[in-house]
Amino acid sequence: MTSRRRRLRPLAAALALAAVAAVGLAGCGSDSPDASSAASSSASSAARTVDLQAHRGGRGEHTEESLYGFEQSIKLGVTTLELDIVLTKDLAPIIWHDPTIDATKCSDTAPVTAGDPQFPYVGKVVHDLTYAQIETLDCGKKLAAYPDAKVVEGNKIATLPQLFALADKYGAGVRYNVETKIEGEKRTESATPQQYVDVILGAVKAANKTDKVEIQSFDWRTLPLVKQAAPSIPLVALWDETTWKPNSMWTGSVDYASVGGDVIAGAQKLGVQVLSPGYSVPYGQTTKDKDFALVADKAFVERAHAMGFTVVPWTIDDVDVMNAQIDAGADGIITDYPMRLRQVLADRGLPLPKAYS
């Protein structure tokens, strides 16, 4: 696209450099059979890279947000590990998606101390529990929606520093797309945006990952706080039709009506670099559905690119939709099935992220 050649967006530029490096280094630290195909296609496709993001570490393939799942994605070869952070009562940054401890995912084992009045912990709000209480949980259950995912028996909820340490063990140059999992409409059920920013950035800086991280949120109050504290970190605006709407509690200083419902104009006002919409409305459509349409269709992506944005929709698990989204010009895709998306990229002759062993 003309606009993309005219002005390469900073995050896209970083990903492009990483992809070119991955092609050149594919034989180092990688047993991937896709390495040679990536190298052979580099001359024709190096200018076009797709950010392969493993949603919750690849929950379609392994227990979601488990260290094991993240490790498998690192070994497979992904561009970015996508993850959620919820803060406990004592402000530990745990890698967890839900505001509560979900009974479909976790089981109690024992109270952290005898007679703990909060026990059992399953069903409780995470922000009302300490990290010590969280550590007692067994969160290795098979999810009905992902029957083929490998279950990590006895799985313990991980923390952000633990994930950084895991990646360092492999010398992995992966990126991290970190979501502040704030409850925008039930604000007493989570820590404040400022607490999220302080804790997450503290962990990021302690691990020397500032240049590898982007911060995403549905609660747009978070993003200006990140910009103020760490201006170099890319900001990702998440939304779907339940958050981008009139009188929304999710959009911070951006008023839906004041921008005429134009989410790209709203994101420009917010000052983010990456647009990350739910890929379809309603969510979960496939190309076989009569009224299938991408939110980030070609016209959307071209306009976003012309305004300097990167576009990374979520969460796409269907191969035909993956291909349609790539055809529309998206810069990346968040998926529960990184193996599946990696194969799509290979089939299209696109550069593959580096695998680590």
Structural features, described:
This protein is of the alpha/beta class. It has one domain: Phosphatidylinositol (PI) phosphodiesterase (TIM Barrel), CATH 3.20.20. The protein has 13 helices and nine strands. Helix 8 crosses helix 9 (222-229). The model is unreliable at 1-8 and 17-46 (pLDDT under 50). Residues 50-345 form the GP-PDE domain. Residues 34-64 are annotated as: Disordered. Residues 1-26 form the signal peptide.
Strand proportion, as a percent range, falls in 5-15%
What is the straight-line distance between the termini?
36 Å
Mean pLDDT: 91
- CATH class reads Alpha Beta
> What's the main sheet like?
9 strands, mixed
Count of helix runs = 13
Number of strands: 9
**Helix content class:** 25-40%
Query: Order of SSEs, N→C?
Result: HHHHEHEEHHEHEHEHEHEHEH
Query: Which structural class is indicated by helix and strand composition?
Result: alpha/beta
